[in-house]
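name: query_chain
kind: protein
chains: 1
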Amino acid sequence: MSTLDGKVALVTGSGRGIGQQIAFKLASAGASVVVNDLDAEPAHETVEKIRADGGSATAVVGSVLEDGFAESFVGAAVESFGGLHIIVNNAGFTWDNVIQKMTDEQWDTILDVHLKAPFRILRAAQPVISAAVKAERAEGTVVNRKVVNISSLAGVGGNAGQANYSSAKAGVEGLTRALAKEWGRLAVNVNAVAFGLISTRLTQAADSGATIDVEGREIKVGVNPQLLQTMEAMIPLGRAGTAEEAAGAVYLLCTPESDYVSGQTLLCAGGFIL
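structure:
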């Protein structure tokens, strides 16, 4: 029997990078996964890969910021797989600038995608979880459910040029701790994983000139190559983490072994502490 057999998981931003690896990891452990991405192609590719490997998955394509998205996303778990046990709020991106040059749009967008979207999804999930818990307890059973919110070392210690992102991720930690207290009575473990330097398209060397398209906005991504070298040198393990390793940290907090861990932030940063 696999660790997560019979569980149903929601993973936002799971068409690429860390989110995709989280979806793969949960599916390989037996969970049915509702995949989400802003773009249809990577979302469906992730679903097809999971199915090809013998797992169960479906896709909900669209922005986590769309009105009604949270309800549709939660509804897909119930309609497709009959329940909801794991929520991973992973979707996000960075849009950096020093504070005197940061626009209201940059501030609002990053706060919305990293903090408001998880809030909406968790709010939409509450009635579903509450009803399931009542039914289970009427049958004399207790089922632990898991929420894993994705934070960052920027949320723990701040980061120059990322006032918006640092504030959003600090907010994620506050949301995590508050909901751990609010949902403890429902046997829901609510935790966060704060990533350090993980190798993804968002953290490649900035001299590559890479950009991402986010709903018509072309946003430059990457890290200054010299800063990237310095950051890696400061990591006790001596390197950036992989997306697979990042997914492993999330998986730990989704397993039955974490049933008495709640309201915590796990640093996945190769030993680096601010």
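note: Strands lie at 8-11, 32-37, 56-61, 86-89, 145-152, 188-195, 211-214, 217-220, 265-268.
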